[in-house]
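Quick one: structure tokens for this chain, please?
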Amino acid sequence: MTGHPNGCYASFGMAMQHSDLVAAMACMTGHWVPPPATNYTPVPIWALHGARDIIAPTNRVDLLGAAYVPAKALAFDRLSALHECTNNNVTTTEDAVPEMDVLLTGRGTLTTQTATSCPHGATVEFVTLSTAGHIAFPAIPEFLPLPPFATS
């Protein structure tokens, strides 16, 4: 399953509640970790986040509370523990990411949190792009006014 961002939340929800129907999930801009179903079987999870995201920030708890939309680091910790992974790594690569915002210059960092050695083979990986916002691709600044739609 995949999605951005509500689709990402839905992917997490489906994976947690219906893991028998979800083989894996990869999504952008979301990290909702609802309580898993009693028959949950871990599925591989990959999630991409922009560090400049002001709509779904990676460093705060949503208004619903920590049990629903935790900060990204807490979500990663919960998932790696739920998947019983024993090897958690964080790698940061400087100057690895091109500037995503056309109004800025320079290159950014790519940070990858990976949980491996999981009994079910269901790894967890969260990737953060330091130069990206809510819409990591394509490289456009956020909240620019859209051109008017043609009426003729």
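The chain has a mean pLDDT of 76.
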